[in-house]
Amino acid sequence: MSRIFCIPGIFFVFAAFVLLFLSSISLPYLPALDVARTKFSTSTGVVDTNAQGLVELRLGVWAYCFYNQDNDRTCTSATHAYSVGIANEDKSITVKIGASWTRGLAVTPVAAAVAFVAFLLSLSLHHAVTLVASLVSFLAATLSLIAFAIDIALFVYLRHKANEISNVNANTHLGVAFWLTFVSFLLLILGGATVCLGRRHRQKRTAEATTYTIETPSEPVTSEKKPFWARFRKN
Predict the structure, then answer these.
(1) Which of 135, 195, 218, 213 is nearest to 2 (CA)?
(2) Which of 118, 134, 193, 221 has the smallest count of CB within 10 Å of its CB?
(3) Cα–Cα distance between 15 and 11 in angstroms, integer?
(4) How far apart are CA 159 and CA 57, in angstroms?
């Protein structure tokens, strides 16, 4: 019966792992799960450093993708710590997002791996293991919070750099992966707390179910020895 109190925590941790896992795949494999995106006005020309026109730029964990006016998508190959360069049509103004701003995005898959370990530990019925599961869940939540802060920094920096291009109307928005990371952080906090409370409830129920009984003899025990013929005496 006490196991029921741990089931919500297990579900929260598993859901957080799934969300972090999807966020970790990100671009170029799942173009919809980007961290941040910027849409440029089609009335003005914007190109990347490879001299290809674009109207939308999306940044992911492993790569970035851009869309042209025909809505054709082009993504770079997956790599860690990539850099992005964009400019206006005549290339009089060029801005660059360096690798130092995208290197920290790799914290997201690390948080996903820790959340998966927390999920496996939360399946155990052992009191000590569930305590470790709760601690690992809080560790994964901390990593998710760090990843969320890195996503915020990248979003702010992308918006700042996009607005530096003159005569271009740039609108920067938060991506889907950004919100998945935030929701994962909340789920891991709830999961770790629920698993911990379920563990305390099981300990309490176990302590209440443990009883100690002392058997008392029905007749008093004496050390006096009776003679042999006393066995045949009538009461």
Answers:
(1) 195
(2) 221
(3) 6
(4) 11
pLDDT tens per residue, range 171-219: 999 999 999 999 999 999 998 888 777 655 555 555 555 544 445 555 5
Q: How far apart are CA 21 and CA 1, in angstroms?
A: 32
Alpha-carbon gap, residue 116 to 118, rounded angstroms: 5
How far out from the chain centre does Cα 154 lie?
A: 19
Is there a contact between 86 and 57 (Cβ–Cβ < 8 Å)?
yes
> Which candidate, 63, 203, 194, places its Cα nearest to that of 137?
194
Provide φ and ψ at 73, rounded to 5°: -95, 140
Tokens of 208: 């209440």
Quick one: which H or E segment has residue 192? helix 176-209
Exposed, middle or buried: residue 71 (CB in 10 Å: 0-12, 13-18, 19+)?
A: exposed
Q: Among residues 159, 13, 161, 29, which one has the least CA distance to residue 88?
A: 161
Per-residue model confidence as pLDDT tens digits over 66-106: 888 888 888 889 999 999 988 877 777 888 999 999 999 99
Contact, 199 vs 131, CB < 8 A? yes
